[in-house]
């Protein structure tokens, strides 16, 4: 069927040709008529209008330049394409409410401000007419912004408007504008309406609020529930409403601290609602007082005794809940001459008050002890040699066991004689003398964060005076809350011993003052003089080691010895108790409130010994030990579990006691082992009973309601154990108690979730779902447990299943929405696992070891496409990387098969989904509630297959970033509204608006990637088109609405991408836009394939640099990809005789006999003109650029092997090299042959060569090099140069080898390239053509592109070398395709 349309212009041309024949379209106006026409009043008027309009436009530019310093007008602005097809009769300045000379920032601010009011997303709750009006206004605002935000487009718009105004005024008419949106009028109307509706201001209500002092120190949140009066819109009057106010109190806030909630109080008829002003003040503290920003501890801390003789002292004090101080340093009263027995030390620690400027003050009372008399001092000095040695040995426990013998009695009598005389004098001096000291301490360094749970930090401080005193503050802001007291106690118990022993070693200044101890003892030593016989033996630690090694008899012995030291009456083998030892030490027994950290040591040892006795079969003794341990620590779970084990193994008489003990253990600690032990014990002892299970459920529900969650878990466990065994599938009988079983597991999972035991809660949730798959609450509870466990994706699947079964399930919908918020943060367990397992694999892989290929739209579920994927070479790409940009297949089974196939052929596969993967096929509708659940299933399969869906480096300085994306109708600039008849998403299912919200949500997944460490080269890819201007299949109506999203390009550029791969367009493309390369390599359907060859991969990185090159699936490059290699030698041989020239020519002829090699030797210039003539007529700079060179040797080889055989052959080494005079070779370099050398049918062919040394920043991936390549393309596209001029720019080197690496491959030891890096070659048919080219603007742009990039250093010669040689070689740039070896006739 054909469609015919009418073209009026074509019809007119046909009629004109029919009437006038060959004269059609020709002008009959003579030169005289043209001259008269130009001097006519009409043309004079038009010139006058042009002159006035340009004068007015110039004045506009001058005024705008004064108001906008960034405004820089250029003549090229009128040649630039328009960013928007504007209407010059519409005043876009009024639409945005800005001045005609407004800056770009003012225009952007005005657009953003208006968008907040008129954007379609902001019209929720309004009528359809209001939405349509706002949509039309927003389109006009958007068009105005597009026109005025682009500099060239704005200048074109201003000029056309000025010209129309001048034209109308010259004809006596008034300029008219189309009626459109006026932002200033709209703002005035809005203010007028607000003024009409304005009420009297409301009252300010002060609300005194008292919080703990810890909130002022650490900061925190405060939630207050307060009732207020609000208008009842249904029945009139006022009603009370409970409103929750959540306020943040910053750390270090002044007192009182005010927080205002404007118009959040009671509502009134004639005035605005009241403003609530919460005034925060601190409650009185038991130990600490606040004075401004300073804190002071009321009571003094007493230390001692006998600190006068101690050079160091240590102390610790709890200041607040969440702050604990450790003090250590030199004793300022060491060997003090004061007679007072007590001294007071005042400490002021800066930075530990309220805020960083606050000071913490505390007082320490040091018991110095009594000072010895003068006679005692004299005696001690006389016996210094003897007593000093004894004191040293006694201090470090190195003396005899019985101690040293007593001193002579004469000394004792002398001491008694003088003691009474000095007693009265010392007491008088003590009353008159008061010993005090004050030390200030300042913070040192930054706080050290500790990865504890809850998080804590260490703050260090040292004294600012000569005294060396140090303080460590253990701070935990989370423990400053009232409910966190237990957590703070556990944290202190665990960290205090460690910080006492090693905390001050973290400070360099403290280490310098640390005493040099002879023993391996901590600084915090109480120096108790213990004889050798009383030194503690670590029996418990030895017993623990023996237990771990399986030596249970030895462990029992060690534990028994420690119990004897603690005066615990040991049970014998038959359960009788041993007599008590009066000389043993005692263990302080306290009630253990939380866990094993504060359990008495005796209870731990008894519990461990009971476990050993169970292992060796002494159940009766184990039972006695476990009972005793449970008495000492009744709130510790471990002795109860071991009591249950011992009682169960002791026989039937004690099995009921075992069940009760297991229940107690579950109440204390509902771990998986305790729950399983209780469940098995109840099942074996009581047997199945559905009625008992139901009664247990009711009993457990009552316990949960009363707040006894642990007891409820134990009761649920016993009820689950009483359930009848589930019938096997072979029996065919359904489970009659399925609902009860599901409810029991469901309730226990809820209780475990409240205790934050998410792993056990997840296991129970799965049991509940397995028992009743159709119960929505079971799926909802499993989702809650998974969400708490950090498995956000798995939790979303369960919530989605619950919503599908019960659409109005409140908690399931809330949980699903919570998962949607959490998933975009990429903080789930699976996301973090992907990052840990895949991101660092190739971080140190050497660059150049892998190539990167890209494809999209594979459609593996099509037979021919699957065959193509299987036909990819199995070995050629095993070191390479593949980018798969979506639309792999429709069904999940086909997707897994495709990824498995491609993963077996490539080292790494990076993948992102497209729209086809999100289709829910008929077989998948029952399995996946929506498309997001299928997406998570695909990601899980990718993790199992080793396919990357997260960013990761593939080698050094190269990273690939997959971007999730979706299309939006706003991609259609002219009609940014969805097409309801497109049918694009009919096979998708989403929990949100697929037109307005889905694409924004998908783009949220990419925001965490912006925080990842970036590499030098970043390659991004997405399925949908990232920007407008890229080609796509336009055969479908309104296809532009479903192909792309511009936010993809914003995210890619935020990651500093250099190349972006995309799909969905169905058009193969490679191009550069705004400095970024874009590539698309769709496989498509069989009908879209090329007729001459199967679809090809696209290589986007060759291991050395970025590229966009088609590549065969059998690792065969396309024709013309592999170039010949060009070898240049520039020689300086003035006055070369004819005979010597013949030697060179003869040697070059022999070189050409080498297979795959062509060569020539000529003087500089062309065939007909010498160098001097060309300098004079065509190229004046040749004399300076050629560096006095006279001749050149050119060798063209098919490959590296051919050139190597040539350079090491006899013709080159024995004939050509000896013919060269000494030091005649100036510059030698190699590069790919970038253009075809053709000399047939040309007047005087000449090859012009520019060898350049560019800066190190100019690489194949850089923007500067891309500009140079574009300048070369512009020269090759000049009109009329085909067959006359062709140019090429190539880097020195060949293939993946740089020039030094190429010399190694050629086995050439000397590098004579003079540091040159690139070469620009020009092939012309005669010197006059080059002269014409060098005078063109296009060639001037080429020079401007490379001249700033020349590097003057780093070589032995100038940065630019140029010469010209005749062309006598005929060779194409593409190397001949190597012949494949023939297979033997007997093999296939």
Provide a descriptive summary of the structure in words.
The structure is a single chain. With 1388 residues, the chain is α/β, with parallel strands linked by helices. It is built from 43 helices and 34 strands. The strands form seven sheets. Strands 6, 7, 8, 9, 10, 11, 12, 13, 14 and 15 form a ten-stranded mixed sheet that branches. A six-stranded mixed sheet has the order 19-20-21-22-24-23, covered by helices on one side. Mean pLDDT is 83; it is low at 1-12, 374-382, 408-414, 518-534, 573-596 and 1382-1388.
What's the Cα radius of gyration? 45 Å
Instruction: Output the structural class.
Output: alpha/beta
Choose one word for the global shape.
globular
pLDDT averaged residue by residue: 83
Please state roughly what percent of the residues sit in beta strands, choosing from under 5%, 5-15%, 15-25%, 25-35%, 35-45% or over 45%: 15-25%
Proportion of residues in helical segments: 25-40%
Low-confidence stretches: 1-12, 374-382, 408-414, 518-534, 573-596, 1382-1388
Distance separating the two termini: 48 Å
Number of strands: 34
What is this structure, in a nutshell?
This protein is α/β, with parallel strands linked by helices. It contains 43 helices and 34 strands. It is globular.
Jot down its keywords.
globular, 1388 residues, alpha/beta, 39% helix, disordered N terminus
Topology:
Layout: H1 8-20, H2 31-38, H3 41-67, H4 92-96, H5 104-118, H6 128-149, H7 151-170, H8 183-196, E1 204-211, H9 213-218, E2 220-231, E3 238-249, E4 257-261, E5 275-282, E6 288-291, E7 294-297, E8 301-303, E9 312-320, E10 323-330, E11 342-350, E12 359-367, H10 374-382, H11 384-395, H12 409-432, E13 435-450, E14 456-463, E15 469-475, H13 485-502, H14 508-512, H15 539-549, H16 552-565, H17 601-615, H18 619-632, H19 637-650, H20 655-668, H21 672-686, H22 690-705, H23 709-721, H24 738-754, H25 758-771, H26 776-788, H27 792-805, H28 810-823, H29 829-838, E16 852-855, H30 863-870, E17 881-885, H31 892-903, E18 908-912, H32 931-945, E19 952-955, E20 958-962, H33 998-1004, E21 1017-1021, H34 1046-1054, E22 1057-1062, E23 1069-1073, E24 1076-1080, E25 1097-1101, E26 1106-1111, E27 1125-1131, H35 1138-1151, E28 1157-1163, H36 1171-1177, H37 1182-1185, E29 1191-1197, H38 1200-1207, H39 1210-1219, E30 1225-1232, E31 1246-1252, H40 1263-1276, E32 1285-1291, H41 1299-1305, E33 1318-1324, H42 1327-1334, H43 1337-1346, E34 1360-1366
Parallel strand pairs: 1-5, 7-12, 8-12, 11-13, 16-17, 17-18, 20-21, 21-22, 22-24
Antiparallel strand pairs: 2-3, 4-5, 6-7, 9-10, 10-15, 11-12, 13-14, 14-15, 16-25, 19-20, 23-24, 25-26, 27-29, 27-30, 28-29, 31-33, 31-34, 32-33
Helix pairs in contact: 3-7, 5-6, 15-16, 16-17, 17-18, 17-19, 18-19, 19-20, 20-21, 20-23, 21-23, 22-23, 22-24, 23-24, 24-25, 24-26, 25-26, 26-27, 26-28, 27-28, 31-32, 35-39, 40-43
